[in-house]
Amino acid sequence: MTQKLVIAVCTAQRPKMLMSCLESLERLVRPAGTELSVVVVENETKPHFTGNTAEEVREKLSVPVHFSAEKRKGIPFARNSALEAALEQEPDWIALIDDDERAEPDWIEKLLSACTAFDAEVANGPVRRIYEKPAPHWWKSQLLKPRPTGTEITEAPTNNILMSARIVANSGLGLRFDERLTFGSEDIDFFRRTHAAGVKMIWVDDAFVEEDIPASRVTTGRLLSRMHMAATSGAFNIVLREGRLKAALHFIPKSFRRMFLGSLATVVGFTLKPFAKKRGEKLYYYGLIRLMKGSGNLRGLLGRAHNYYDVIDGH
Asked: Terminal CA-to-CA distance of the chain, rounded, Å?
């Protein structure tokens, strides 16, 4: 019996990156007995891939590609539109990949095989990051953390995912991304709720995708803004799930502790820089990151949105 597998991609103002992603999906090894197709959702009021442009892309690829648009600005809106578009294909499985990523040829095969072998409904794999420009020496880059394939997980991002369509189908769990989380953490929240619903989720250590990191994303301002956004969305997520009082009891002491230590480290680092530049800078920016996290947590408690994703990195 043939299984249908739909790969969903959300995109905004990055046509070159999206084409690179689609070309990598064209090179995928097709698992035996599996029918593949792709849905692309542009989070744009005036989408790029329409009419002749969309048709040109379809002619270049043998895998069927379906384009649609989500005019409401915000990642969870686009992700939910992508789920709806995928469900129209009546799939058994839905995969998620970002528009700035490229899949290894055996990506889907590895994820699907692992789900079968470990009787799981969600599989998450690693992302190999390719930097256009090295990150500053003080930045702690996100390193791959090898874990045995089949290790059970309780949360996941959406940048390398395969999941059973039952999770989002109306006849199944009917889960959707929380559209209040327009400024981050909507993917972590989604899969935490998926796990809480009793779904088995696993890690697949050799199902790689590559992510391009543009130089603009590793500037000092963008890196600090990312830390502020992550802390803001993380705190707001707890407000939504556990209530403002419980979130405040947890984050207010944590925020002030972070900001106190951050201020101290920033002053000491700044003072140290003339005598030991690299060491001083590392301490200085460590302090700024603590300040960003502390102030971001307070911002999230107040439910104030962050504009990090208003800026598009890449093309």
From this structure: 40
Per the CB < 8 A criterion, the answer to whether 123 and 156 are in contact is no
Average pLDDT in the chain: 93
What is the rounded distance in angstroms from the CA atom of residue 294 to the CA atom of residue 271? 22
And the tokens for 280? 């001083």
- Cα-based torsion angle of the residue sequence 46, 50, 56, 62 in order, rounded to the nearest 10 degrees: 110
Per this entry, what is the length of the chain?
Answer: 315
Backbone angles phi, psi at 117, to 5 degrees: -65, -35
Query: Residues 284-310: pLDDT tens digits?
Result: 999 999 999 999 999 999 988 887 777
pLDDT digits (tens, 9 = 90+) for 15-62: 899 999 999 999 999 998 999 999 999 998 888 888 888 888 898 899
Helix/strand/coil (H/E/C) assignment for every residue in the chain: CCEEEEEEEEECCCHHHHHHHHHHHHCCCCCCCEEEEEEEEECCCCCCCCHHHHHHHHHHCCCCEEEEECCCCCHHHHHHHHHHHHHCCCCCEEEEEECCEEECCCHHHHHHHHHHHHCCCEEECCEEEEECCCCCCCCCCCCCCCCCCCCECCCCCCCEEEEEHHHCCCCCCCCCCCCCCCCCCHHHHHHHHHHHCCCCEEECCCCCEEEEECHHHHCHHHHHHHHHHHHHHHHHHHHHHHCHHHHHHHHHHHHHHHHHHHHHHHHHHHHHCCCCHHHHHHHHHHHHHHHHHHHHHHHHHCCCCCCHHHCCCCC
CA distances 203 to 32, 151, 245, Å, are: 22, 5, 34
Q: What is the pLDDT of residues 3-18, one digit of tens each?
A: 999 999 999 988 899 9
Cα separation, 256 vs 277, whole angstroms: 28
Of residues 56, 67, 90, 55, the one with CA closest to residue 8: 67
Angle of helix 244-272 relative to helix 220-242, nearest 10 degrees, comes to 160
